[in-house]
Amino acid sequence: LNSKSELVFRGFFGYGSAYNTTQIIPQESRFYSGGTNSMRGWQSNTLGPGRLSLRDIQTENFTSGSSISLLAPGGEIISEMNAELRFDVYSYLEMALFTDVGNVWFGNTPTNLGGDRASLATFSPGNLSLGWDAGLGFRFDFSFLILRVDLAQQLHAPDVGWVLNRTNDPDRRFQLNLGIGYPF
Predict the structure, then answer these.
(1) I need a surface site. Which of 64, 75, 105, 174 has the fewest CB within 10 A?
(2) What is the mean pLDDT of the chain?
(3) What pLDDT score was predicted for residue 86?
(4) Is the pLDDT of residue 64 over 50?
């Protein structure tokens, strides 16, 4: 925008397809969303799939291929968009206002996901709910290293809807992220 500020955008879309007989992409090859370089309102790799949350997966005893897992199952389809307004505050201190939108989904309901809510993880018209967050960040630019501190608030979570309308929810869904380098 000028010598002291910049507006930066990022879009990331992906689709993966299995070639094996199980028709499920191995967990290490799936897409994940959430964390310091992704959807900053969520902990690392905990957004989705679809309208499910990591809490849903743990309580419904979903499985991730081999055994009950505390890890998010990820997805075969991902969509993320990020925008960040960065501006100088003081010699080595920068500030950023940002927003992130996105989610991950499975292409088809995997047969190895248990529970009644497994269909909520698929890419279908009823499950296209996106996560949305916004926040404020500080960047310490030492020319050889950039340290980041981002505080993000979830605005819309696919598993619960509008987060700010949930006044009696003890989990306000804030996330503090620490990072090295610019997020994108």
Answers:
(1) 174
(2) 85
(3) 96
(4) no
**Residue labelled with tokens 């997966």:** 57
Q: How many Cα atoms within 13 Å fall on the side-chain side of residue 15? A: 5
Burial 39-55 (b: 16+ CB within 10 A, else e): bbbbebbbbbbbbbbbe
C-alpha angle 28-21-61 in degrees, rounded to nearest 5: 55
Q: What angle do CA 148, 149, 154 make, to 5 degrees?
A: 125
CA distance 182 to 147: 8
Strands 161-162, 174-180: pairing is: unpaired
Distances in Å between the Cα of 176 and the Cα atoms of 41, 88, 151, 155 are 8, 21, 5, 15
User: Rounded to the nearest 5 degrees, what angle is found at the Cα of 107, between the Cα atoms of 106 and 109?
Assistant: 70
Nearest to 179 by CA among 96, 56, 61: 96
**What φ, ψ does residue 94 adopt, rounded to 5°?**
-120, 155
Q: Which two tokens stand for residue 31?
A: 């897409």
Q: Residue 158: is the preceding peptide bond cis (ω within 30°)?
A: no
Q: What is the pLDDT of residues 143-170, one digit of tens each?
A: 889 999 999 999 999 988 898 877 676 6
pTM for the model stands at: 0.85
Q: Rounded CA gap, 105 and 136, in Å?
A: 28
